[in-house]
Amino acid sequence: MATACFHLRLCPRFRAFASFSSRPLLATHPRTLPLRRTGPATPLAARTRRGFGSSMAAAPPNEDDDFATAADLRFDQPLKVVQYPDPVLRARNKRINTFDDNLRSLADEMFDVMYKTDGIGLSAPQVGVNVQLMVFNPAGVKGEGEEIVLVNPVVYKFSKRLSVYEEGCLSFPGIYANVLRPDTVEIDAQDASGAKIKVKLSELSARVFQHEFDHLQGILFFDRMTMDVVESIHEQLKNLEDKYEEITGQASPETISNYRGTKDVASFSR
Ligand SMILES: [Zn+2]
Asked: Coiled-coil intervals in this record (predicted)?
C-alpha cells in the first residue's frame, strides 16, 4: 500500500500506472482471478488514439454530506467477504473524512483478505463496511504490482470505447460472465492519508476500478450484464440466494427470478 500511495503522490496528475502497462493483463492466477479478459486484446496504442469522450459531469457518491462515523468504520478481524444477496451489498456507502490508523488498517486487512481469496480488487461493503473505500492490485499477488487504495472516488470521464471482459466477483464465488465497460476512466479520489488523487486508469486497472466503484454505489456486476448473460448464470445466482436463505433463515432480499433486465445503472454518463 505504501508503494501505491508513494507513486500516486509522486505524480498524481493523469498518471497511468506504469507497472500495469508493462505487465501482461493476466500474468497470474488465470484460473481464479475475479476479473478475466476474454476476446482479442486491443492494442494499447489503438485505445489511446481513440481518446476520451466529451467530459461528463460526475455525480457525487451520495446526495448528502453525511460522513462515516467511527462506528461506521468499525470492523471485525478477520474480515469476511460478504456474499450475494446480503443486503449490505446494496446499502448506501458513506463518504470518509477521517484518515487515521483505523482506516489504514482496514485497507491493510482488505488487501490481506483479497490476496487470500485470489482477488485483485475489493470494496469495503464487500467486507461489511458501508463506506467509500476500495483497494486493488491487478497483479493479485502480495509484493508484486501496485497496491492502490482509493477513498471517496468519483469518475469524471469515461472513454467512449467499450470492451467486454469476463468478470468475477469475490461476493459471487465461482461465477464469471461478460460485462461491457468503458476502456478508460479518469477519476478523482483520495488516498489512505486523505491526499487528493487525480488519475487516468486504463487496461485491467480501469476494469477493476469500475467494478469496485460500482460496489460503492450498490451496483453489482450482473446489473450490467445483458439479459442473455444473466440467463447463463441464473442458476448459480439462484444457488447463492438459496444458500443465503439456508444460512440466515430469512427470505432472500432480492431474487434473480424477478430480475427484469438491466436498470438505469447501465449508464456510464456519471
Ligand atoms: Zn465484486
From this structure: none
Question: Ligand 1 centroid to 35 CA: how many Å?
Answer: 9
Fold of 2-39+54-225: Peptide Deformylase (3.90.45)
Q: Is the peptide bond before 85 cis (omega within 30 degrees of 0)?
A: yes
pLDDT digits (tens, 9 = 90+) for 244-261: 999 999 999 999 998 887
- Burial category of 190 from C-beta neighbours within 10 Å (exposed 0-12, middle 13-18, buried 19 and up): buried
Q: What is the 128 CA–ligand 1 centroid distance (Å)?
A: 13
Asked if the bond preceding 78 is cis, omega within 30° of 0, the reply is yes
For ligand 1, the distance from its centroid to the CA atom of residue 110, given in whole angstroms, is 13
270, 101 contact by CB (below 8 A): no
Rounded to the nearest angstrom, the distance between the alpha carbon of 168 and the centre of ligand 1 is 7
Those residues with Cβ within 8 angstroms of residue 12's Cβ, 6 or more apart along the chain or in another chain: 195, 196, 197, 198, 199
Q: Share the mean pLDDT of the chain.
A: 80
Spans of all domains in the chain: 2-39+54-225
Query: How would residue 23 be classed by pLDDT, with cut points 50, 70 and 90?
Result: very low
Query: How many CA within 13 A on the CB side of residue 142?
Result: 11
Give per-residue pLDDT as tens, 145-186: 999 999 999 999 999 999 999 999 999 999 999 999 999 999
Please identify every residue annotated as catalytic: 212
For 107-241, list the strands marked E by DSSP.
Answer: 121-123, 133-136, 148-158, 162-168, 176-182, 185-190, 196-201
Q: How many whole angstroms separate alpha carbon 111 and alpha carbon 27? A: 19
